[in-house]
Specification:
The structure is a homotrimer. By secondary structure, chain A is an alpha/beta fold. In chain A, α5 crosses α6. At the A-B interface, α2 and α11 of A face β2 and α3 of B.
Amino acid sequence: MFNLHGKDVVSILDFNRELIEDVFNAAYIMEKYARGVGLNLLKGKIMATLFFEPSTRTRLSFESAMYRLGGSVIGFTSAEASSVAKGETLSDTIKTVENYCDCIVLRHPAEGAAKLAAELANVPVINAGSGAQEHPTQALLDIYTIKRELGRVDGLEIGIVGDLKYGRTVHSLVYALSLFNVNLSFVSPPGLRLRDEIEEDLRRKGIEFKYYEDIEKIIPNLDVIYVVRIQKERFPDPAEYLRVKGSYKITSSLISKAKSNCIILHPLPRVDEISLDVDSRPQAKYFIQTYYGLCMRMGLLSMILANKEDLKQLFYSSK
Amino acid sequence: MFNLHGKDVVSILDFNRELIEDVFNAAYIMEKYARGVGLNLLKGKIMATLFFEPSTRTRLSFESAMYRLGGSVIGFTSAEASSVAKGETLSDTIKTVENYCDCIVLRHPAEGAAKLAAELANVPVINAGSGAQEHPTQALLDIYTIKRELGRVDGLEIGIVGDLKYGRTVHSLVYALSLFNVNLSFVSPPGLRLRDEIEEDLRRKGIEFKYYEDIEKIIPNLDVIYVVRIQKERFPDPAEYLRVKGSYKITSSLISKAKSNCIILHPLPRVDEISLDVDSRPQAKYFIQTYYGLCMRMGLLSMILANKEDLKQLFYSSK
Amino acid sequence: MFNLHGKDVVSILDFNRELIEDVFNAAYIMEKYARGVGLNLLKGKIMATLFFEPSTRTRLSFESAMYRLGGSVIGFTSAEASSVAKGETLSDTIKTVENYCDCIVLRHPAEGAAKLAAELANVPVINAGSGAQEHPTQALLDIYTIKRELGRVDGLEIGIVGDLKYGRTVHSLVYALSLFNVNLSFVSPPGLRLRDEIEEDLRRKGIEFKYYEDIEKIIPNLDVIYVVRIQKERFPDPAEYLRVKGSYKITSSLISKAKSNCIILHPLPRVDEISLDVDSRPQAKYFIQTYYGLCMRMGLLSMILANKEDLKQLFYSSK
């Protein structure tokens, strides 16, 4: 329970299975405090949310997590409202803001921004999305949702549908899932398959995975259908985009071919990858997924920032 | 005092006179805590302020109210800083954010946005202005100001001056005033009179009202002069706008014809509907009106969110 | 210790040496509480940060200071998110917001904005930068950093390098330093020397100062090297700018000619006035300067807002 105390969370690659289970245990304890009551665990602590790109879910759930734990929040929601508008570098911003807070939650468009910030800062840095590759807390909340909704992660058939090449959340998720004993099905247009390095990593770890172009073939087998956006700007030919987009849309009639107890997840925001009539299906779990995200972030912040005695007491009293 | 517990505040039409008086009682109690000390009544509670349009008064007074009551605030101040920038619908934003908070305060340019949000969310939704028609908490604070400054609402002569057709605050205010025993004078250019449906509603309720084009005729009779902006963009002919605008401007010399104990209100922001030399007149109450707005919103939030036992204790101890 | 109780902080001209020392004493006490624990001194108090211009350091450090002291914060970070976008004047914004808070921290592009706000508001107003001339809390934190890092201010050789004419921080700093017994060296291109009125003021106070164009000549004598930006847009001829810029850049090789125990300060953000390799020099103090800024602002807010009894107790218990 103290393995993250004072630590950065930069990449899902820094997590092993044991640490992920620790975070899930913390998240589960936090479910008791995630609605309307809260804790004093982080009273007096300040989190800085430095968001150089817009975000609803990630920023608001980190902030809500901090408030539920009794802490405070400073920060900015776009580069324009900060000294970046006057030409300040990320390094200088970090070396300044670390003096005002107890941890930094950073979203930045550049690859490696969170890593750089973590190296520079004397306070813990949590990566809330940097560049196209890493979004570790999203992966943690995704898998926590699976565990909470299906009772386990090992042994599941998990399908990931959409843009597997450019989606920021996919990379972190696949790496995290590779620590579990799962079968992975990747459903995408041929041009949007996993990047080579991730594919190789999966092989090295002995994870079973297959590619599909047609979601209908595989959907009856899936326990988890994880949907990500296919972005128009990835296609040189707009007509090709329109053709492809339709085939990966999750509709109510498609879901009628799925297991009755499968779950549908999405990192959100969705545009139209999941049609609205799916929302009322019992398998639709992408909104409660945001709630689990709050609990997971409360757990994570507690493990990083809480006084060890207080944390121990909370954990034992919750057993 | 528990009639709003866990409830939405979408439209002033949902209020009857008794409920308005309840809110006023709560607001009055809050005057003791609205400056510099505060309460712990909403400790641990989180309010989300989702503002899709700019606002100073409404947003800051809701946030101040929440802090004075011991709670916390998350949110955004423009659509650009949220996932709306990535194409997310209002529904998806609401179904996400409800998981992070205990109530949602929403301002949105679309008619019916607050109603939709209230139907979707499991937490109470407070309408902080949606579309051109509804701004219920503004109406409540307007009438609370009248009550506090003049000691009563019934029996008063109330004049509403300016754009009665498009002003968001006018509609909610007129509906709310129709629950009291007042005489209404509407002063506007012919093209900016009340919408038909509101006029009919007033007739049905037996409320006395008259139209005037010339404010000088009626001003000596008024107890309350409520001024709203006339917006340039409502006039096809800019020359017509300039001509009309001048006639509805409240000046110090105009006020010298008014009752010495009348009060001048304005929802603010003003542009130049009230000249600056009116500010020092004793009748000018549009700034203290913002203070009453804070107290009223503290009362409202308490009624909606506070633990019933705590609320009861506060109310009884304040008698 | 009570000399700022309920007072505005508009201009450094309102400070005498005794008051500055009081603020430094308060800042020093706050160093104990500036990291991770905090105080309840301002519990229930609300600070409004009204930033009409972007800022990282000033806004975030004021907000952090308020949270470390147990208070809350409302506000906006750009004019666009407020009613200014609808044409509201600064006066009306101030006369509104004062009803929602216990003090206002204002940054505004207009000269005299803070003075105007202070005259209007019934709550204390702190100038966080107005127009090109005044930024009093920056000057206080600059000198506090000198005192903390060098143990004293009197008797030091202080060089100010860069744009002395337009830099907002320079004016407040020079006035504040004139209350101490220092020798000042001003290093700038001829066209960017101090404004006449400041120069005269220094003479009147009997402060020793000299102008230099070449930093190499004076650097071996300096105890403090205070660097400010030279902005391109001040030069009619871009070629002249490029020529001049290079001569005022602080590099590691330049610093090797300086005293080993001198300190380099900068109000930040820097663009490239100090090269990155200087950051690792022991003389580089511009990041810890931001930390001292937090402590100084905590001290200042306490002196202005805290209950006198609580403040007295804190001060005596800290002796």
